[in-house]
Amino acid sequence: MSEPGLLPDLLILFALSVVAALAFHRLRLPPIVGFLITGVISGPYGFGLIRNITDVESLAEIGVVLLLFTVGLEFSLQHLARLRRFLFIGGALQVGVTIAVTAALAHLLAVAWPVAIFLGMLVALSSTAITLRLYGERGELDTPFGKAALGILIFQDLCVVPMMLLTPALAGGARNPTSLVRTLLEAALFIAATIVAARLVVPRILHLVAATRRREVFLLTIVLFCLGTAWASARVGLSLALGAFIAGIVIADSEYSQQALSDVVPLREVFNSLFFISIGMLFDIRTVGRSPVLILCAIATVIAVKVVVTGGASLALGQSLRPALATGLGLAQIGEFSFVLSAAGMSAGLLDERLDQLFLAVAVGTMALTPALIDVAPRAGAWLERRTPNRWRPSQASAPIPGDAPVGDHVIIVGFGFNGRNLARVLRDVGIAYRVIDSNATTARQERRQGEPVLYGDASSAEILHHAGVERARVLVIAISDIAATRATVANVRRLNPNVHVIVRTRYMREIGSLVKLGSGEVVPEEFETAIEVFTRVLRRYLVPRDVIEREVRSVRSQYDDMFRPLPDIGVRVEDLSRFLTDVTLVVMRVEPGAPATGEPLSDVRFRERSGATIVAIQRDGGGLVVSPSGDEVLHPGDTILAMGRTDQLERAATLLRQRVTA
Fold first, then answer.
1. SS3 of 77, please?
2. Domain 7-384 bears CATH identifier 3.40.50.720
């Protein structure tokens, strides 16, 4: 019987990976760290469980190819256009400044410049897989810092290829400046030739394959194209990664990109786990024992540099302190592509064994700390804003809207996305004044040119709320995806104007409780409204009568009515109702002890006949509320009533509610 070869090693690795992934999931740590530890345990520096390390590394290389291929598949030009400022400007600032600062610090420690620059390249890259997965789980991908992080991460991913090409040049190998330029030209020609060929050939092939309706044939074709392009790239002297990335971009422009991505992702995850395991096999755990202080200092330095540089880049692009800090903390780790780059650096002689081990220890440490850093970001941002002088806050530097007179009894809209724009349009159509606060400087500038009253700034700032006239506003609507900013905004609004009615849009029902406690008048969870819309449409397809559908909707809403409407509808400022009335007035009056209208039913007192005013509601002294009271209701001392009528009628009503004057 033949030897099983690689199979026992794979069984050991996958078994350990499953255990590690489950354990790290319980600890709320990224599974990537679990895979790295699996490699440490099973590798030559651990228990030596794996014999065919070279074969595992070969499979791991396929994982890198598939990883870059899927990055290319997700390379949507439309999506990137919306993130272009953070992608090109923010990404360039983050990568360039991080490389420069890291290289300077390393050179101060007597590291040669080529090696110092290479270390800067390693540190500049962050983990796309870890950051986006954590943001997705927390529902923060659509927040300002989530979008900023995505743009910067895409730029970093694009930088991997030129960094791979620059590595031999830094090592002083055969690639002098002339050969480097030639390599870049070859890369450009290869990219152009591949794209042109793919435009003409790939769509036809994929169409023929898709017509078979055989999923396995489609998957084999996609993998063939991915690996084939990567192999062709390597044959012309470029990297496998470059070819795989180009293949992904080519298919991304076709109608089959989403199916290709869904089919390849499971393969990518399997081979990626082998890649991280193979990196862990290279790590000597004894390095931590030999230099614990050095490693801890290096981890702290890397996190500090990346937070300051990334946060600074975000500030430069108009973000306020809190989301800028959140962006920096979210990208403070060393990324998975840095392992690919470090392997190239080892082959080129830029890293020796000791420096490579130090890098691996620092990379694993920053990855393990990422969930904690992202979790602490909202509190750290709020703390920093409270202690930062106003003149240093970009969000505080925004001036009032030019030519805008003070406004009152208006609506303040926080966030000018889809919900905010639609609300503004409706308010404009019905003639209700409004002001908008948006933290995107570009959006604010563009909308103001169109005549929209948009104020640039962070709505969690008291000064920005003051500029928007929160003290005079009737309603404030928060329509942003950033739950931390939403909480801070509600808290500040309640402090500045306890009477303003706050309506909050949120994504998940689990956030309702905390928002209500902070003082939100109404919370509208998209999760709940979507559920109602879905079952309504399902019932319509089955021709369920409309009255039955409406009954079911009322039934579902009634189960959560107290949660969604924590304040009673009568709890608005009743004097505001007078703006809709012309000759009548609404006033609140208190029933005094001994008043003529007390002690008997209203019908016996003849309150309306004697005064001409109408009692709209009675707020009992003990806490009860009576709306549209009947003639059987009795007024008691201490009750508060809402009365409606002309001025003379209300004056007569007041005499019935005051204490009798005895001679």
1. helix
2. no
Task: From residue 628, give the alpha-carbon distance in Å to each of 249, 633, 640.
Answer: 67, 10, 14
Q: Packing angle between helix 321-330 and helix 353-386, nearest 10 degrees? A: 160
Quick one: average pLDDT of 103-109?
93
Instruction: Give me the amino acid identity at 90.
Output: G
SS3 of 590-644: the string is ECCCCCCCECCEHHHHCHHHHHCCEEEEEECCCCCEEECCCCCCEECCCCEEEEE
Domain 574-657 has CATH 3.30.70.1450: yes
- The model scores a pTM over 0.70: no
Mean pLDDT of 184-210: 75
Q: How confident is the model at residue 119 (pLDDT cuts 50, 70, 90)?
A: very high
Q: What angle do CA 458, 463, 466 make, to 5 degrees?
A: 105
Taking each helix axis from N to C terminus, what angle separates 292-316 and 113-124, rounded to the nearest 10 degrees? 70
The DSSP-derived string for 525-564 is: EHHHHHHHHHHHHHHHHTT--HHHHHHHHHHHHHHTHHHH
User: Concatenated DSSP letters for 162-181?
Assistant: HHHHHHHHHTTSS--HHHHH
State how far the Cα of 151 lies from the Cα of 163, in Å rounded to an integer: 18
Quick one: which of 634, 583, 577 has its CA closest to 612?
583
Phi, psi of 351 (to 5 degrees): -110, 135
pLDDT the model gives residue 397: 42
| Average pLDDT of the residues of the chain | 81
Q: Which residues contact 371 (CB under 8 A, 6 or more apart)?
A: 28, 29, 30, 134
As a whole number, mean pLDDT of residues 154-167 equals 81
Phi, psi torsion values for 628, nearest 5 degrees: 50, 65
The three-state secondary structure class of 125 is coil
| Beta carbons of 329 and 263 less than 8 angstroms apart | no
For residue 573, give the 3-state DSSP assignment.
coil
Closest CA to 28 of 125, 127, 145, 130: 130
- Among 530, 537, 526, 532, residue whose Cα is nearest residue 557: 532
Query: Strand 522-525's sheet: what is its strand order?
Result: 454-456, 434-438, 411-414, 475-478, 501-506, 522-525
Confidence class for position 562, pLDDT limits 50, 70, 90:
low
Q: What are phi and psi of 59, to 5 degrees?
A: -65, -35
Name the residue ranges covered by the structural domains of the chain.
7-384, 394-564, 574-657
pLDDT tens for each residue of 482-498: 887 888 889 889 889 98
Six-digit token string for 307: 């937070």
In this structure, the dihedral spanned by the alpha carbons of residues 241, 243, 249 and 254, taken in order and rounded to 10 degrees, is -130
Class of CATH domain 394-564: alpha beta
At 225-258, the pLDDT tens digits run 888 888 887 777 666 766 787 788 778 767 777 7
